[in-house]
Design a protein that fits this description.
62% helix, Growth Hormone, Chain: A, 3 domains, 617 residues, two-stranded antiparallel sheet, mainly alpha, globular
């Protein structure tokens, strides 16, 4: 038995770092990984952002994260204007096209996560689908440039009833280009975060745990920089030089990102794919169903406990029906049970982890429904307001979304440099506050954002309908600012929470799940818009959001509805966060007693028709 334990420990130590370099050779901690490698993925634009990471790194390490965000944000955030003015779709249809497009991006992240973890690895998935996204940007630019690929010019505000909507070949080219961008971006996004996080070895270098937390904040900083440039410079180019030039600049940004991420090839530590990630999960459910009539052994804290530890995973008390998948039945023969009938405790516990994070994931869907409004209706709000900043300069409505990012490029470093160390001293948590606490704070703020949006829209509508006054676009600032803070807390908290789950070889897929939350949120937004219109419409007038004129619509009431839904969602999250905290780990005594044990299954010896539970000394 002692010899067996020694073997298991030796194997476990050998497997602590199975990463490889670009040639497939074992990675060297002195040459591969760390902040320097992660910077290629993040895309950091200045020495100040590099000092944010506490590492010396060349300023040319402007990588994929920020460049890809620049390209996709410039398209997505101003797409509704292009759909209305150039493609002549109605406001509600344009809003749904945008939300469906963004939702599809994030849903396809699951495909990217699966291909990465199972077959390609993060790096090659990024390269392959990065070129797919680039081709979509190029085709969008061509479609926007050629008049024969668009409907005849028409003013939707004055002649909306007679404007011809894009159909047939025009619509086909547009949607093919749009969804090439969606496919590429969806598969690239989860792998950017996962590939950067893979550069930190938490198992052999404990100091990397704090650096990983910093990395996630830095990833959001890079995201904010990319968004800010997209919503100011690129949107200004789209407004003044045309959407064709704007889409072309997005293509150039994506091309630059691909060039830079490839330039970091020699410095990456890469996690090799592990084969199908779904097969081990399916095996646990099948084995548990096949052995559903077996007696489930009890895991006792004292005395002769059933030792059910494998690697660093200890059996937990949640979802006990799955434990039957690791019951080994001995009937006197030496026949080895199929992996579809017998699973290791590690395998079972990883499935439990996957199930337990689903409620947390689900609670962020409504949060992303709120985000969808800021990219659709809030842009239209800005279009109905006074956009003049000086006598000669008008703020493009799509650039309103840059407001939170201007604040966040200062706030995120301050959060990491000052709040995290202070909170760490109080809580003892390496991230200052736990990911679950961070998510909860963000969800509460999203409710406040919708309240601010509802109050502002009522003021804007009353002013326009009553005195005819058009209020300044700066009145819309609070809802964007509050939601920016909310997104910083929720998005980063969710990414950190998912990545740190003990699901080996599934990090890219877990990152994809965080993006999938965006997808469901944007799809839910489309459903809510259609449902609200249907419920609130009557024979004499349309619904709250059925008109192309916001002065006739009741967007304020729709925002109040979202505020109520967001608050109820926050209360629901509090319940599931508490449940997860209480059920996420085994008691410390079990953990301590299980350390060093290498046994993978419960052993049941079968005598005739009786099944007897046999503890192993």
């Amino acid at each position: 038995m002692e010899e067996g334990r020694g073997t298991d420990k030796g194997e476990m130590k050998h497997q602590q770092d199975n990463t490889v370099d670009w040639r497939g050779r074992p990675s060297n901690p002195k040459k591969h990984g760390g902040i320097s490698a992660a910077a290629f993925v993040l895309g950091l634009f200045s020495f100040s952002s590099l000092s944010f990471l506490n590492e010396k790194c060349d300023v040319d390490n402007a990588g994929l994260q920020a460049f890809e965000i620049m390209g996709i944000a410039a398209v997505g955030n101003n797409l509704i204007t292009y759909l209305i003015n150039e493609m002549h779709f109605s406001l509600s249809k344009s809003a749904n096209i945008v939300t469906n497009f963004v939702g599809t991006i994030f849903l396809l992240a699951l495909l990217g996560g699966y291909l990465s973890d199972s077959h390609l690895g993060c790096f090659w998935t990024i390269i392959l689908f990065g070129f797919v996204e680039l081709s979509g940007f190029i085709l969008l630019s061509v479609q926007a440039h050629l008049p024969q690929l668009k409907p005849a010019k028409c003013n939707m505000l004055t002649d909306g009833d007679v404007c011809e909507e894009a159909k047939g070949f025009e619509a086909l080219i547009f949607f093919v280009a749009l969804y090439l961008v969606a496919l590429g971006s969806g598969c690239v996004k989860p792998n950017m975060i996962a590939h950067g996080a893979d550069q930190f070895n938490l198992q052999t270098n404990p100091s990397h745990s704090k650096k990983l937390s910093t990395y996630f904040n830095a990833a959001y900083f890079a995201f904010s920089m990319g968004e800010l440039i997209a919503l100011t410079v690129l949107v200004w180019i789209q407004t003044h030089a045309g959407m064709d030039v704007g889409f072309g600049v997005s293509a150039a940004a994506m091309a630059m990102g691909l060039i830079v991420v490839v330039s970091g090839t020699l410095y990456y530590r890469n996690k090799p794919p592990r084969g199908s990630i779904f097969t081990p999960i399916a095996q646990v459910f099948v084995a548990a169903i096949v052995k559903r009539k077996q007696i489930n052994p009890e895991l006792m804290i004292n005395g002769d406990q059933n030792r059910a530890e494998s690697g660093n995973v200890v059996q937990t008390q949640r979802f006990r029906f799955l434990d039957k998948a690791c019951i080994k039945v001995e009937d006197g023969s030496n026949t080895k049970e199929s992996p579809w009938r017998l699973c290791s405790v590690t395998q079972v516990e990883q499935v439990k982890i996957l199930i337990s994070v689903i409620p947390i994931f689900a609670c962020t869907i409504v949060f992303n429904t709120v985000l969808a409004q800021l990219q659709t209706f809030s842009v239209q709000q800005g279009s109905a307001m006074d956009t003049q900043l000086t006598k000669s300069f008008h703020i493009p409505p799509a650039s309103l979304q840059s407001i939170p990012y201007i604040i966040l490029i200062f706030l995120v470093p301050l959060y990491d440099k000052f709040f995290v160390p202070l909170a760490r001293k109080i809580t003892g948590h390496e991230s200052g506050i736990s990911p679950l606490q961070r998510i909860g704070s963000g969800l509460f703020l999203s409710t406040s954002s919708m309240i601010a949006a509802a109050l502002m829209e009522k003021k804007r509508r009353d002013s326009a309908s009553g005195s005819g006054e058009i209020i300044s676009i700066f009145w819309i600032t609070p809802q964007f600012l509050i939601f920016g803070l909310s997104e910083m807390l929720t998005a980063v908290g969710l990414i950190e929470f998912f990545y740190k789950q003990s699901l080996q070889g599934m990090q890219a897929f877990l990152m994809a799940m965080t993006y999938c939350s965006y997808s469901f949120g944007f799809y839910l937004s489309s459903v809510l818009v259609s449902l609200v219109n249907k419920i609130t419409s009557s024979s004499s007038k349309g619904g709250w959001l059925s008109d192309n004129d916001l002065n006739k619509d009741r967007l304020d009431l729709f925002y109040w509805l979202l505020a109520v839904i967001s608050f109820l969602n926050f209360l629901n999250y509090l319940f599931w966060a508490r449940w997860h905290s209480h059920n996420s780990s085994a008691p410390p005594t079990i953990q301590n007693e299980a350390d060093g044990m290498g046994l993978n299954h419960y052993i049941l010896t079968k005598h005739s028709k009786d099944v007897v539970d046999e503890n192993i000394p």
